[in-house]
Write a structure and sequence with these properties.
Order of helices and strands: HHH
Number of helices: 3
Largest sheet: none
Helix content: over 70%
Number of strands: 0
Length: about 100
Protein backbone atom coordinates (compact mmCIF):
# COMPACT_ATOMS: atom_id res chain seq x y z
CA UNK A 1 0.00 0.00 0.00
CA UNK A 2 1.30 3.42 -0.92
CA UNK A 3 1.77 5.44 2.29
CA UNK A 4 2.11 8.67 0.28
CA UNK A 5 -1.41 8.20 -1.03
CA UNK A 6 -2.79 7.82 2.48
CA UNK A 7 -0.88 10.89 3.69
CA UNK A 8 -2.03 12.91 0.69
CA UNK A 9 -5.65 11.91 1.29
CA UNK A 10 -5.40 12.79 5.00
CA UNK A 11 -3.95 16.19 4.17
CA UNK A 12 -6.68 16.77 1.59
CA UNK A 13 -9.32 16.03 4.23
CA UNK A 14 -7.65 18.44 6.65
CA UNK A 15 -7.63 21.16 3.99
CA UNK A 16 -11.29 20.46 3.27
CA UNK A 17 -12.13 20.71 6.97
CA UNK A 18 -10.28 24.02 7.25
CA UNK A 19 -12.03 25.33 4.14
CA UNK A 20 -15.39 24.37 5.65
CA UNK A 21 -14.55 26.23 8.86
CA UNK A 22 -13.38 29.25 6.87
CA UNK A 23 -16.63 29.25 4.93
CA UNK A 24 -18.60 29.18 8.19
CA UNK A 25 -16.67 32.18 9.45
CA UNK A 26 -17.35 34.03 6.19
CA UNK A 27 -21.09 33.40 6.58
CA UNK A 28 -20.98 34.62 10.19
CA UNK A 29 -19.02 37.72 9.19
CA UNK A 30 -21.52 38.54 6.45
CA UNK A 31 -24.39 38.03 8.88
CA UNK A 32 -22.77 40.42 11.34
CA UNK A 33 -22.30 43.00 8.58
CA UNK A 34 -26.00 42.91 7.78
CA UNK A 35 -26.83 43.24 11.50
CA UNK A 36 -24.52 46.21 11.79
CA UNK A 37 -26.06 47.79 8.70
CA UNK A 38 -29.50 47.36 10.23
CA UNK A 39 -28.37 48.99 13.46
CA UNK A 40 -26.65 51.93 11.80
CA UNK A 41 -29.43 52.80 9.34
CA UNK A 42 -31.33 54.82 11.91
CA UNK A 43 -28.39 57.15 12.55
CA UNK A 44 -26.99 57.15 9.04
CA UNK A 45 -30.12 57.75 7.01
CA UNK A 46 -32.98 60.01 7.92
CA UNK A 47 -35.67 58.18 5.97
CA UNK A 48 -39.30 57.78 6.94
CA UNK A 49 -39.64 54.04 7.10
CA UNK A 50 -36.23 53.02 8.41
CA UNK A 51 -37.86 50.41 10.68
CA UNK A 52 -38.89 48.36 7.64
CA UNK A 53 -35.39 48.52 6.21
CA UNK A 54 -33.94 47.55 9.60
CA UNK A 55 -36.26 44.56 9.84
CA UNK A 56 -35.24 43.55 6.32
CA UNK A 57 -31.56 43.79 7.21
CA UNK A 58 -32.04 41.78 10.40
CA UNK A 59 -34.06 39.19 8.48
CA UNK A 60 -31.32 38.83 5.88
CA UNK A 61 -28.78 38.56 8.70
CA UNK A 62 -30.69 35.79 10.45
CA UNK A 63 -31.20 33.92 7.16
CA UNK A 64 -27.48 34.06 6.32
CA UNK A 65 -26.59 32.99 9.87
CA UNK A 66 -28.92 29.96 9.82
CA UNK A 67 -27.90 29.01 6.28
CA UNK A 68 -24.20 29.23 7.16
CA UNK A 69 -24.56 27.05 10.26
CA UNK A 70 -26.64 24.43 8.44
CA UNK A 71 -24.21 24.46 5.50
CA UNK A 72 -21.31 23.89 7.90
CA UNK A 73 -22.91 20.85 9.55
CA UNK A 74 -24.03 19.33 6.25
CA UNK A 75 -20.53 19.54 4.83
CA UNK A 76 -18.98 18.37 8.09
CA UNK A 77 -21.07 15.21 7.89
CA UNK A 78 -20.02 14.66 4.25
CA UNK A 79 -16.36 15.10 5.16
CA UNK A 80 -16.71 12.62 8.02
CA UNK A 81 -18.29 10.06 5.67
CA UNK A 82 -15.44 10.44 3.18
CA UNK A 83 -12.82 9.65 5.84
CA UNK A 84 -13.70 5.95 5.77
CA UNK A 85 -12.26 5.62 2.25
CA UNK A 86 -8.70 6.55 3.20
CA UNK A 87 -6.33 3.61 3.06
CA UNK A 88 -8.90 1.12 1.77
CA UNK A 89 -8.30 1.54 -1.95
CA UNK A 90 -6.42 -1.75 -2.28
CA UNK A 91 -9.14 -3.71 -0.45
CA UNK A 92 -11.87 -2.08 -2.53
CA UNK A 93 -10.00 -2.84 -5.74
CA UNK A 94 -9.45 -6.49 -4.83
CA UNK A 95 -13.10 -6.99 -3.86
CA UNK A 96 -14.27 -5.66 -7.26
CA UNK A 97 -12.04 -8.08 -9.21
Amino acid sequence: MNKDLILRENLALQRTTLANQSTLLAFLRTSLYFSLAGLSLENLLKIKHHEKVQILMFGISIFIFIYGISNYFIHKKRIKRSEIHIGHYKEDYESES
